[in-house]
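User: Hey, my collaborator sent me this sequence without any context and asked if I could get a structure. I don't really work with proteins. Can you help?
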Amino acid sequence: LIQDIKEGSRKIVITTEKLDITKNYILELQGISSEQVLKSILPDGLINKFYTDKKLGAIIDKKTNKTTFRVFSPRASKITLLLYKKSSDNKPYKTMDLIKVPAEGIFETEINENLTLQYYKYKVDGPSGEAERFNYNRELTDLYAKAIIGHSGKGIILPSNYYDKSFEKWT
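Assistant: No problem. I've predicted the 3D structure and written it out in structure-token form, which is a compact way to encode the shape of the chain:
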């Protein structure tokens, strides 16, 4: 895997083949101490290489009557959408995996239905190991949701210009 190692005064540069960012890599340093020294690594500035100008979150297109779900998570290996009819539902009525667009670091899916006022969450999987926070067993709130139920509740699917007088009571 290692192609080249260059030593400087205080820095060692290791050149490798292309790394898969959905995996966790461990750098093992030998000869430093009597105990094994392991360090989880993520190449510096890697996330900055991904960009999308697409809208993120739940996006409703009233012209086509479709709802698109889009998440930025370049290190994830899998994202599953969980759809709920009511905020009180404990089990989703529908689940589906989002499709990864590696060049943009996003996952997305399109549903041929306007899902206004339905609810959703995600399950996200990715590298495991020290300092990693991926846990596919945990349901997550969309960071880009226009509204959510409670602190870490389900996202509410709303068109961008949606307004309801009852929202005035929400905090």
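In plain terms: The mean pLDDT is 82. You can pass these tokens on to your collaborator as they are.
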